[in-house]
Amino acid sequence: MDLLDRDACYRALQTRDARFDGRLFVGVTSTGIYCRPICPARTASFKNCRFYASAAAAQEEGFRPCLRCRPETAPDLASWNGTSSTVSRALALIADGGLDGGEAGVDALAERLGVGGRQLRRLFKQHLGASPIAVEQTRRVLFAKQLLQETRMPMAEVALASGFGSVRRFNETFHDLFHRPPRELRRKAQTELPEGSVAEAGVTLRLRYRPPYDWPAMLAYLEARAIDGVEQVAAGSYRRTVAHEGRLGTVEVRHEPARDNLVVTVRFPSVKALPAILARVRRVFDVGADIEAIGAHLSRDPFLAPLLAQRPGLRAPGGWDGFELAVRAILGQQVTVVAARRLAGQLVALCGEPLPAPASLHARLTRAFPSAEQVARADLGALGMPSARRASLKALAEAALADPHLFRPSGTVEEAIARLRAIRGVGEWTAQYIALRALRETDAFPASDIALLRGAANGAGERPTPEDLLQRAEPWRPWRAYAAQHLWAADAAGARPRESPLLVDLPSPSIDRTTAHAPRESVMGEAMPAHRDGTAAPKRRSQRRRPVMAEALSPLMDSTTLPKGTRVPPEARHG
After folding, report:
1. How far apart are CA 289 and CA 272, in angstroms?
2. Predicted TM-score (pTM) above 0.85
3. CA distance 265 to 309
4. Is 438 strand, coil or helix?
C-alpha cells in the first residue's frame, strides 16, 4: 500500500525531511530493505521506491529493516493519527500484549473495541497497510532488534523480552528476515551480560519523540503530584516504583534533548515485563504525540494560537496506571494539592507493598502503589477523609476487580465515560479526566473544570459556561485533550490570552445549581467539581437561610463571576 502522493514522498526522501520521520517508510525494491526518510544511505532511484504508512506494511511486503537508519528508533507516529480512534485504541492494546493469542486474538481484540474482526482488519489495512498480526509481529522484531543494538542482554533474554516463544523461533525469524543470526546484529564491542543479571544491572533504552518537547513542564507536572515512597523527581529525572504481575521494580526516565530521546532505565526481575513497562512510559510522557500536527490543527483557532505559540512542545501527560489515576482523582476531590498528596502517601503506607531491598537503588522509592485488590481489602478508616469518599475508593477497587479492562481503551469514548460514571463517586469530570489521562483519549474534555473555564476567559475576564465551552471546543476535535492542557497551563501561569472576537461576546456565566458548586484545586493541579460524584450537592436548610459571600469561596472563583448574594454550599468553600 503506497502512502500519500509518491512524488511528495520522494521529495521528502531526497531532502531527508525529518518532518516525515515516523510518518512514512520507504521500501527499496533493488535491495529488499525499508528505511526511514532520514536514512543517510544514498537515495534510491524513484522507480525502485515504494512508500508505506507503517513499518509493518513494508515488512509484510517482504522488505527487511535497514541497519543504518534503524526503523525501530523512529518516532512512534503515523499519518493516520487523529483519523481512526479505533486503530489508535487497538495499537495501545497491542502494545499491552492484547494480541498475544495470535490470529485468534484479533477477534477478541475487535470485540473489546466494539467492532467485528473483519472491520478491524479492514481498518488496519486502510490506515496502516498491514494486518493486526503483521503489526504485532513487526513490533516484536523491531523491539528485539533495539534490545540487540542498545543493550547487553543475553540472547535468550532478548528473545523472552520481545515476546518470542522460544530462542529457536527467535533465531529462525532473524535468519529469515536479515539472512544472519541475531548475534551478528550486535555491535562487536558489546559483550553480553550473564543471564539473570539484568534485573540488578538494569536495561537502558531510548524512546524517540518528535520535537519540540517541553520537558520542564512535564517534570513540573509529575513533581507536583509525586507520591512519597512511590515517585521521585530529582536532578532532572523522574523515578518511580513499578508493580507488574506480582513482581516489583523501578524505572527512571531522563531527557536527552540533543538526540530527541527519553532515556529509560528499567530494573525489574522479569525481562518479559519490558514491553509493558515501556508502553507505560510512552503513555505517561506522551512520546507518540505528533505535536506539529496537533499544533497546526489547534492554531487555526485565534484564541488558542497564542497559547500554542507560548508552549509549542506542551504534552498531555498520561497516568502510569488507570486504577492509580482514578484513586488519585477521588483522593483529590475537595482538597488542596498538598492534602491530596498526603492522603495518597497515607494510602501507600497503609496497603502498598514494600519494595525488596535489591529492587531499588534509590532510598526514597520504598513501596509500590496499592493494587485494586489491596485497596479493597484494606481498612481505610485511618485515612483522614469523609466516609463517603472512603466508600467511593472501595467501590472503585471493586469495579476494577470485576472488570480487569475497566481502565483500558475499548469502544468509543462515550461508552468509556458511561462505564466509568457507573462507579460510585465518579462523575462526569472524573470520568473525562480518567479518559484523558489513563485511557489516552485525545478528545476527552472535562468542560466543567473551573480552571478550563478560567483559562478560556476572554480579554475582559469573562468566562464561558461549560455548555458554551463545549460548543466552542467542537472545532478542536479530535485534539480537545491538548487544547485542555494549554488552557490549564495558561490558567496556572495566570496568563490571559489576547482578546478574541470569538469569545468576547459570550455572556457572563450565570450561577445555578449545576455551576454554583465551585470546584477546588485537585491533586492533578486542575480544578475538580466540589461534589464527590461531580454533580451539584443538594442545598440544606441552613444553607438556604445563610448567604455565603463570594470572598469566602475558593480562589478558583472570584467575586467578578458571582452576583451579590449568591448562595454557595460549604463544599465550595475553603476548609
Report:
1. 26
2. no
3. 33
4. coil
Q: Which helix (H) or strand (E) holds 233?
A: strand 231-234
Residue with cell 506522551: 286
Dist. CA 533–CA 421, nearest whole Å: 9
Residue 440 has pLDDT above 50, yes or no: yes
Q: Residue 117, exposed/middle/buried by CB under 10 A (0-12, 13-18, 19+)? A: middle
Q: What is the pLDDT confidence band of residue 525, given thresholds at 50, 70 and 90?
A: very low
According to DSSP, residue 195 is labeled T
Q: Categorize the per-residue pLDDT at 23 as very low, low, confident or very high, splitting at 50, 70 and 90.
A: confident
Assess contact for 134 and 56: CB atoms under 8 A.
Answer: yes
How wide is the angle at C-alpha 320 spanned by C-alphas 254 and 358, nearest 5°? Answer: 65
- Name the region of 546 (left: φ>0; alpha: ψ -120 to 50; beta: rest): beta
Dihedral (C-alpha) 345, 346, 348, 349: value to the nearest 10 degrees? 120
Angle between helices 132-150 and 103-113 (to 10 degrees): 110
Find how far residue 551's CA is from the centre of its chain: 38
Question: What phi, psi does 248 have (nearest 5°)?
Answer: -125, 150
Q: Among candidates 510, 523, 513, 526, which has minimal Cα distance to 571?
A: 513
Q: Is 260 a catalytic residue?
A: no
Direct distance between the N- and C-terminal alpha carbons of the chain, in angstroms, rounded to an integer: 61
Amino acid 228 reads D
Residue 506's contacts (CB-CB under 8 Å, 6 or more residues apart) are: 458, 462, 464, 465, 468
pLDDT in tens, 227-239: 999 999 999 999 9
Give φ, ψ of 226 to 5 degrees.
-65, 125
Residue 225, pLDDT score: 93
Q: By three-state DSSP, how is residue 255 classified?
A: strand
Phi, psi of 572 (to 5 degrees): -90, -5
Q: Which amino acid, one-letter code, is at 254?
A: R
The pairing of strands 33-35 and 64-65 is: parallel
Q: Which of these is catalytic: 9, 21, 35, 491?
A: 35
Alpha helix (H) residue ranges in 114-188: 117-127, 132-150, 155-161, 167-178
Report which residue type is found at 339: A
Residue with cell 523527581: 233
Beta-carbon contacts of residue 146 (< 8 Å; ≥ 6 apart):
70, 72, 73, 205
Q: Is the pLDDT of residue 563 over 60?
A: no
Cα 169 versus chain centre, distance: 33
Which cell numbers in the block locate residue 265?
532505565
d(CA 299, CA 319): 26
Give the span between the Cα atoms of 431 and 329, in whole angstroms: 10
- For residues 355 and 247, give the distance between their C-alpha atoms in angstroms, rounded to a whole number: 9
The alpha-helical segments, DSSP class H, found in 403-447 are 413-421, 428-437
Reply yes or no on whether 449 is catalytic.
yes
Partners of 206 in the β-ladder: 263
Point out the catalytic residue in the list 260, 321, 443, 449.
Answer: 449
**How many other CB atoms sit within 10 Å of the CB of residue 287?**
22
Q: What is the DSSP letter of 320?
A: S
Q: What percent of the chain has pLDDT over 70?
A: 80
Angle at 86 between CA 83 and CA 91, to 5 degrees: 100
237: left (phi over 0), alpha (psi -120 to 50) or beta: beta
